Amino acid sequence: MWTAVLDIIHAIEGTASLFHCSLNGHAKCVIQDVMVAAERAMEERLKQQKLADLADKEAAGTP
């Protein structure tokens, strides 16, 4: 099993959301749904990206 980049980020930063809406004391703001969807998409991509793949690219000199 290869280590996902998301696992490393969670180990260092924790799993708290990157976005916190606190506009006028409301529990939810207009852009919250968009930000949560974007965060989920980013986490899915980082879950797919394996550290070994990045190391292979670096070793091959591929950006």
Automatic annotation (TrEMBL):
Q: Which residues form the signal peptide?
A: none
Name listed for the protein in its UniProt record: Transcriptional regulator, BadM/Rrf2 family
> What is the organism of origin for this protein?
Thermobacillus xylanilyticus
User: Which gene holds the coding sequence for this protein?
Assistant: txxe352
